[in-house]
Design brief:
Length: about 100
Amino acid sequence: MALPEKLILVCQSFRLGKEPKGICHKGTDGLLQYIEEGILDRGLDVQVATTGCLKQCEKGPVLVIQPDNLWFKGVNSEEAIDAILDGLESGEPAAEYLLS
């Protein structure tokens, strides 16, 4: 299996030896599957992985695209994911969700 062109990291708020904290894991049920389906529908060469806490709790849920090092905030809806994936496809990041 070849390495993917990009990697999407999705914060799930887990911290070493503890329960999830923050908001990244709240209200995001089904969004990982929605991301996967969006990637397949668009034919993107992208892998998705969940992470522990990314230390941006006040801006969560947080999603990161590597190797571009693009950090996105408030990713808690299908609309946000569509905007981010559209930006990934077009090469123009979804500015309204960029974490600066």
